[in-house]
Specification:
This protein has about 425 residues and is an alpha+beta fold. The protein folds into three domains: about 210 residues, no CATH class; about 55 residues; about 160 residues, Heat Shock Protein 90 (2-Layer Sandwich), CATH 3.30.565. It has 14 helices and six strands. InterPro entries: HATPase_C_sf, HATPase_dom, His_kinase_dom.
């Protein structure tokens, strides 16, 4: 009976450490310690029941049951639960290796006896609490939150290291303890190599996405260039028209007629001129595309862009996703309105934050839909593949440590996002304003 209680206490501390890591790094938004304690107690019961089985079967059942309980209780994706379990198991294993190494350095040999295991686990618990309180825990959360197939391959490698180490430990822990420094060097080298390859592949993947977005907008940029050339070609026609106005108008009328004609030219030329001054080619192409759509739908489209204000916060493909989705929704909301068909885009800076704000006239979202519009698959429009625009934007915001705000101001529906500036650059204060 005493042996069972000792085993239960050791298992409780081990599971508590593991759930503490999981709750801080993976379950922050949905964490519930009553559920966590329930998982721990059920796991202890299972571990006591299978205690006398083969160590490898015990290990397999322990891992499988833990993953299944977390998946069911927190209603999480099975793949994501497995990924998180493997990553956190690796963190837990590294902590234990560090503690055993430190003990060896000061002359204490790890024997695996009950009292020593309790002492080591309590020290590990203290270290875990310190880790979860440190700022670098935010970095770990971002890594675990990455939704990428590349991450899955990385985690599979980690999982193989953990399983191999566990089997060696259970077979004969002295193989590891007698060669601890060599073992640590091998593990650190393999994990470091995997991390380097992972970030290298991620960088290549990010560059590929940026290139794809830039290639997608090349035709629109060519249209802008063609439009500029056409206006340069028309310059002679403008002069001929001015000359004709002077010839056919009376002295009283000529001043007024010239003013009217020049104002119309200025309005027309401002459209292309202000777009040209936008330095980011993705923003430039999106705004030009939306100006053409605004002209077709008879929508008044206003924009105010501070150059470089998003370049140090977002990648080009993220800028494309955010602006296209927000502007598409705004145009969709006003296109059938009978009056005041207005859409406004603001890209600017507020303090140390970069701001993206899209407004459309009218209160175009029903109160009942407000709490659902950012959920995956929710849409007020009919058809397949709907309801992913705002969800994708919210995912980008989470990845960048930001959020998206919805408000209603002065007869406008407003979506606003703010992003921290990653680095300071020399900024051109040129702003562009246009209406269509």
């Amino acid at each position: 009976m005493i042996i069972v209680l000792q085993y239960a206490l050791v298992s409780f501390i081990e599971l508590f450490i593991f759930m503490l890591l999981w709750s801080k790094f993976c379950l922050k938004d949905e964490n519930n310690w009553l559920k966590n304690i329930f998982v721990i107690l059920i796991e202890i019961i299972i571990l006591i029941i299978i205690n006398k089985t083969n160590v490898y079967v015990d290990f397999l059942i322990r891992c499988t049951s833990m993953i299944i309980f977390i998946k069911i209780i927190y209603k999480r994706s099975l793949i994501r639960t497995i990924v998180e379990f493997i990553v956190l198991s690796c963190v837990n294993m590294i902590l234990q290796i560090i503690l055993i190494s430190c003990a060896h350095l000061v002359g204490f040999s790890y024997s695996g006896k009950y009292v020593m295991r309790i002492v080591f686990l309590l020290i590990e618990l203290i270290c875990t609490i310190i880790i979860t309180r440190c700022n670098f825990s935010k970095i770990a959360k971002k890594v675990i939150k990455l939704d990428s197939k590349i991450l899955y391959y990385f985690v599979i490698n980690l999982g193989l290291y953990i399983i191999l180490s566990k089997f060696i430990w259970e077979y004969n822990k002295n193989i590891i303890l007698d060669n601890l420094l060599v073992y640590i060097f091998i593990i650190i080298s393999m994990i470091s190599l995997n991390i380097f390859l992972y970030y290298y592949i991620i960088k290549i993947s990010e560059d590929k996405k940026v290139l794809e977005v830039q290639n997608m907008y090349k035709p629109i940029l060519l249209d802008i260039v063609e439009e500029t050339r056409r206006r340069q070609h028309d310059f002679k026609n403008y002069l001929n028209t001015i000359n004709a106005i002077v010839e056919v108008s009376s002295e009283k009328e000529v001043k007024n007629e010239l003013r009217k004609y020049i104002m119309s030219l200025k309005y027309s030329n401002d459209i292309i001129e202000n777009i040209i001054y936008i330095e980011n080619i993705i923003i430039k192409a999106i705004i030009y595309n939306k100006l053409c759509e605004a002209d077709r739908l008879n929508v008044k489209f206003l924009f105010n862009v501070a150059n470089n204000s998003l370049d140090n916060s977002l990648n080009d493909y993220e800028i494309s996703d955010i602006l296209n989705n927000l502007l598409d929704n705004a145009f969709q909301a006003v296109k059938n309105a009978t009056k005041d068909k207005i859409v406004i885009l603001n890209i600017c800076e507020e303090g140390n934050d970069n701001i993206v704000e899209v407004k459309n006239s009218g209160r175009t979202i029903k109160p009942d839909n407000i709490e659902h519009i950012f959920k995956r698959g929710f849409s007020t429009k009919k058809g397949d593949n709907r309801g992913y625009g705002l969800f994708n934007i919210k995912e980008i915001a989470k990845k960048r440590g930001s959020d998206i705000q919805l408000s209603f101001e002065d007869g406008y529906t407003v979506f606003k996002m703010s992003f921290n500036q990653i680095s300071k650059r020399n900024k051109n204060s040129k702003r562009s304003k246009i209406s269509s």
